[in-house]
Amino acid sequence: MKRRGKGGIFATILFSLVSILYLAPLFIVLINSFKKKAFINLEPFKLPTEKNFIGLENFTNAIENYDFLMAVVWNLVMTVGSVVVILVCTSMFAWFITRVNNRATKFLYLLCVFSMVVPFQMVMFTLSLVTDRLKLGTPWGLIIIYLGFGAGLAVFMFCGFVKSIPIEIEEAAMIDGCSPLRTFFSVVLPIMKPTYISVGILETMWIWNDFLLPYLTLDLNKFSTIPITIQRMQGSYGRVDMGAIMASLVMAIIPIVVFYLACQKHIIKGVAAGAVKG
């Protein structure tokens, strides 16, 4: 018991130090968001003082001069829209290919799993060309693109969970007169809630912070996401508005961190629920 106690204390100290290392960049961004621009480069690791403290001026600068609030709106539209479409479409697809167990559905499942292996760099130039020709360079078109890229992980997790659902429940609903769609939305979907929450959290964190896909596909003259807006704060000839960048990073980080902390307990439940061998 003593050895286990010492080992537990050592592990606690070790992982506490590791946590501090991971949180240090966030803390540095936070303290620098309240400093004057000149002091961010000169004294990046020092706490704000009367000499370098600037209050909320960096935040108002980012909002007023860089149209940050509009970027937040487009980020919300794309994130919420994409996550809803991914959850509904992939869960229905996973339920179908799991229950209709034949060569065609097995092949479709393998395609979804294979899509997680293919590096994005292999398809980004073709994706940009196709997006331009199909006129998908809008937030609404980007939702369709996110559905394609987010389907692999979602289908994989949903299929694992559907295999754990007793088919007798669905057969009983069919006997009572439910159509396949009603069976899914009234019986299967409520049972899949843990995996819905888990997949929703993972997809939200990915889409909210994504830079490359919107940058390649969106019409940047009309639309801009938070990462793209922050990138634009670096002007030509090496001019960088560090104050606005730090403030924007804080405003971008806080919503997703709060969302993750509120829902993190559901991630393990959803992953564990989907880790079922069929």
Describe this structure in words.
This protein is 75% helix and 0% strand. It has a single domain (59-274), classed as MetI-like fold (Orthogonal Bundle). It is an all-alpha fold and 278 residues long.
List keywords for this structure.
278 residues; mainly alpha; MetI-like fold; 13 helices; 75% helix; globular
List the helices and strands and how they pair.
Layout: H1 2-32, H2 37-42, H3 57-65, H4 68-99, H5 103-115, H6 124-133, H7 139-162, H8 167-175, H9 180-191, H10 193-209, H11 212-217, H12 226-232, H13 242-274
Helix pairs in contact: 1-13, 3-13, 4-5, 4-7, 4-10, 5-7, 7-10, 7-13, 8-9, 10-13
Helical residues, percent: over 70%
List the quaternary state of the chains: single chain
Can you count the helices? 13
In CATH terms, the superfamily is: MetI-like
Total count of strands: 0
Query: What's the CATH architecture name?
Result: Orthogonal Bundle
- Distance N to C terminus: 40 Å
Cα Rg: 23 Å
User: Which structural class matches the secondary elements?
Assistant: mainly alpha
